[in-house]
Amino acid sequence: MHTVKTHHTKDTVDGSIRETGFLTIAALEKEGRLLHAFTTRHGGLGARSNGGKHRDDWTAMAHSFGIRIERLATVDQVHGENIVKVDEMNVREVRTVRADALITRTPGIAVGVETADCVPVLLYDPVMHAVAAVHAGWKSTVKKIVQKTVNRMHEEFGTEASRLIAAIGPAIGPECYEVDEPVMGPVREAFSFWPEVSAPRGTDRWSLDLVKANKLELLQIGLDGKNIHSVGMCTACRKDDFYSFRAEGKTGRMLSVIMVKP
Question: Is the residue at 95 inside a domain?
Answer without folding.
Answer: yes
